[in-house]
Amino acid sequence: MTANKVALDTETRTRIIGTKITCPFLGSAANQERLIILGEIGNPLASIGDVRRLGNTGGGDLGDLLVLFAEGNHAFMRGGSGVALDTPVPPGMFSLELPGSQGSHPGHSGILQGDPRKLESGRLSVQDFDRLAALAKGGLIKRADVGRFIAENLKRDAASKVIGAGVAELLLEDLGELLGAAGGLLLGLVQSNGAGARLRPLEEKLTKLMGEDNLVGSSGEFGLLFAFLSRSPRAGALDGEPALSFADVRTMFLDKRLPEGWELWSKTRADWVVHTASLVVSAAREFSSH
Description:
- This protein folds into 2 domains: about 1-105, no CATH class; about 120-290, no CATH class.
- The strands form 3 sheets. The chain has a 3-stranded antiparallel sheet. Strands 6-8-7 form a 3-stranded antiparallel sheet.
- The protein has about 290 residues and is mainly alpha-helical.
- It has 12 helices and 8 strands.
């Protein structure tokens, strides 16, 4: 199999993105041809170098973290049978078959995919998107409310695997004052020199837990959304905590487009650690409260 650019008409591109590329970032980038679809229509791939470049656009090193996830969760493509992701991707590539991949899990939001175990189960659920939209206030959606949304998704799916709400407390114990109150004290660290190195132990804990606990996995996915959008000029704060522009969120989920000006602000893996850890805490507390 070669990894050349696939010639796609609009209808085919839309179908591939809708059924296979069920990530708001990757789907938007592919729709706008910022991420080039390679390989074959039935077995789409993308370049590791492309996803690194996209994530690092505007400054920062979020792209380096995206590479870690791409190599860890999407390293297999369809083999000879065409019905399973059982063949290693070519060097420097990752698979764009997201439902049914190692990174797909129970307790997901339901917005862009159905059965996480089934290939090509992507589809748009306006009903599930509206559940998220209902949490926005004044055009913003705050981080703790996204944590509530994550907890709700886990409760709605009996197949969800949650090791225990105590995972949040363990993170707090391990990091002590570094985490502070649900990650609040980390906000200053992100602006300081050496923040990435100081946060690396927590990043390692979170990335390991993502594959073991669906609560952490979902928090990591929405943590990427916060890392990508939290420095947008349209983002802000609600009740003293970070909040995203819901227009930016809607643009990526529904319109399959990267928000206006996305190339101009930095995106960092330290931001991902801060937001993911905070989402874990808020989601775990909500999950265990009822």
